[in-house]
Amino acid sequence: MIRPPPLRPGDVVRVVAPASPFDLEAFEAGLAVLRGPLGLRPRLRPDVTARAGYLAGDDARRLEEWREAVADPEARAIFCARGGYGAMRLLPAVDPAPLLAAPKLLVGFSDVTALHALLNRAGLATVHGPVVTQLGRAPADAVAHLRALLFGEAPRPGAWGAPAGGAGLVGGATLTPGLARGPLLGGSLTLLAHLCGTPWLPLLGGAILVLEDVGERPYKLDRYLTQLALSGALRGLAGVAVGQLTDCDGEAGAEVVRRLVRQLGIPAAEGFAFGHEDRNLALPLGPRATLVAPGPGEEGPARLLFDEGATAAAPPVRSPGEA
C-alpha cells in the first residue's frame, strides 16, 4: 500500500467537487478551516460551484477538475467539497496510475467512498475524513485529529489504553469480542453495496471493514448488508467497525446493523465517531490497523488503532550542507 508524503504547513491542496453541488456558506467556512487551523493553501477552479441538477456540473466538468487536481505538481492533497451523489459516475474514466506515481492524499467520505474504493484497490492509501462543507462545523478535537493524521505528527500516548488524536479511535461498545488486524477499508454502506458487481468494490478478505451511513431506513440497511454478504464480498473479513448511522431511525436502524454484523462471527464494535455527524474523526483507508473489541471482564474501551498512518514517514531533517 503506497502512503503519500505527510502534509506540511503552507502546502497547496486542491479542492474538487466530484459529486453533488453544495451550500456556499458552509463551503467558505470549511475553506477557512483549511487556511487557518490546518495552515494549508486551498486551490480551486472558479467553476467548482457549478450545478447541473443534482450534480456539481456535468460529468465532463467534474472529471476535468479531478484530472487537473491530480496533475497539479504543487498540490499535496485533494479535498472533496461535498459528497451527495455523482462520484461513481466518474469511475470508468479515473486512472489511478498518476496518483500511484506521484501520491497525493485524498480526503473525503460518504459518496467519496467510490473514489476511495478505486484508489485503495489500486494500492493507494486515502483518508476517510470530513468534506470541506463539514469542516466549518467540526469541533476542535476533530480538526486536531485530522491534522495529526495528515501531517504525520507523532501522537501522544492516550489514557486507559485509548489512542491519542491521529493514532486511532475509541468506540462505544463491543458487538462480538475479539482482536482483528488488517487493512482498514470501506466507508458508506450504501456506496459499497452499489459497487457490488463492479470492478471497483474493495477486496475485503482479511480487512477490517468500516461502515457508516445517513438517512437510510432499517430495511435498506438490511438490504445493503445482505447484498454484500450474498455477493461473497464479506468472505474472509477480519473485523467490523461501525461508525455513525445518522438519521437511520435511531435504535431501529442501529439494531439491524448490530444483528447482521454479529451474524458474521468476527470481532466487531460500534459507536466510532466517523460519519455524517459534525464530529467526524478521520481514519486512514488502506493501511493496517488493529480492532480491539473487549469481551466481558477485559479492560479498556473498544478501539481502532492505526498501526500505520495515512502518510509515509517524513524524511529526516538535514542540516545545511549535509549529504
What features would you describe in this structure?
The chain is α/β, with parallel strands linked by helices and 323 residues long. The protein folds into two domains: 12-151, Murein tetrapeptidase LD-carboxypeptidase, N-terminal domain (Rossmann fold, 3-Layer(aba) Sandwich); 168-306, 3-Layer(bba) Sandwich (Glucose Oxidase, domain 1). Helix content is 28%, strand content 22%. The chain is built from nine helices and 14 strands. Helix 8 (218-231) runs parallel beside helix 9 (250-262). It is globular, with a radius of gyration of 19 Å. The model is unreliable at 156-160 and 314-323 (pLDDT under 50).
What is this structure, in a nutshell?
This protein has 323 residues and is of the alpha/beta class.
Set down the secondary structure blueprint.
Layout: E1 12-16, H1 24-35, E2 41-43, H2 59-71, E3 75-80, H3 97-101, E4 105-108, H4 113-122, E5 126-128, H5 132-135, H6 140-151, E6 168-170, E7 173-176, E8 178-188, H7 189-194, E9 208-214, H8 218-231, E10 239-246, H9 250-262, E11 268-270, E12 283-285, E13 288-293, E14 303-306
Parallel strand pairs: 1-2, 1-3, 3-4, 4-5, 8-9, 9-10, 10-11
Antiparallel strand pairs: 5-12, 6-14, 7-11, 8-13, 13-14
Helix pairs in contact: 8-9
Share in β-strands: 15-25%
Number of strands: 14
Helix content estimate: 25-40%
Helix vs. strand class: alpha/beta
The CATH architecture assignment of the largest domain turns out to be: 3-Layer(aba) Sandwich
Rg for CA atoms: 19 Å
CATH H-level superfamily of the largest domain: Murein tetrapeptidase LD-carboxypeptidase, N-terminal domain
What is the typical, i.e. mean, pLDDT?
A: 93
Shape: globular
Number of H- or I-type helical stretches: 9
Profile the largest sheet: 8 strands, mixed
Query: Which regions have little confidence, pLDDT < 50, spanning 5+ residues?
Result: 156-160, 314-323
Write the H/E string, N to C.
Answer: EHEHEHEHEHHEEEHEHEHEEEE
What's the structural domain tally? 2
The CATH class of the largest domain is identified as Alpha Beta
Strand order, biggest sheet? 6-14-13-8-9-10-11-7
